[in-house]
Design goal:
The protein is of the alpha+beta class and about 325 residues long. It contains eleven helices and twelve strands.
Amino acid sequence: MFLMRINEKDIIKIFQNNFKNKNWIPEDVEYFKIDKNIVVIKSDSLVESTDVPTNTKLRYIIRKSFISCISDFSSKCVNPKYGIISITIPRNFSKKKITQLARVISCTATEFKIKMLGGDTNEGKELVVNVCLVGITKNIVRRKGAKIDDVIISTGAFGYTSSALNIILKNLTCSKYFEKKAKNFLLKPSSRLNFCISNSKYFSSAMDSSDGLSTTLNVMAIQSKKKFVITKLPTNNDIINFAEINKLDPLKLILDGGEEYEIIATAKPSNIDKIKKNAIAYNIELFEIGHVTKGQGVTYRNNNNETIIKDHGWIHLN
């Protein structure tokens, strides 16, 4: 007898059905209203064996744990204010290593002006970090607000994290400079929080891209009930060169890699100049990648060719 495998999306549906929340719509964060305020909550787990390369330093593990949550707050243009952290610690961790762990958590929280309220510790076979952040706001930017003729933008380049994983896991060919650059994208992701908050009144919709650009574009198009037409890929020539040298599909590196922690957003054409000024102020490599039209789905228009971009982003247990 063969057991039917289920992936992350199937598991989420099972939980939602049992929670009896028929009106649930996927969003980057969870939120609810108290009086006139919106309370925003996000929880994200990092498992050492599945979420980071072997022998990744503690400071990178903790930073990534925070960034994965902060990126979701960024896409909603909301400041996280409070945090709770739960950590599963292997028995072989020394007091010195645990002290280092605590210091890194404290420094990371301080960097992002998050007040840590506490959390939980447990024992396990590997390091597991769960960060939960809370913020309060009056408004959030949803995934579903894209309008016809809106411009689609990206806060950074795609393809470096998937290139880095290929370099680490498959020992692929590249220059030392590119290797360092790609690994920095993977191990030291940046926050787009301040840039996004500065554009909160200009974004019509936005979403975190950590599960892959193809996933993000498709989810936003579906929820907005519009068609997203991509006319320029958010990437750089060194990604294309890396793909060519190693006989990889550059579209797969760019669209399906995941863990970029960039923000994909839509905005009226009249607001793009204001967003560009904010990008310069916050040292953001902004890409205008396409536009929104009537219809459905996501396509890539290259010269006279138009191909469908399917959702092939990262799914746990797939």
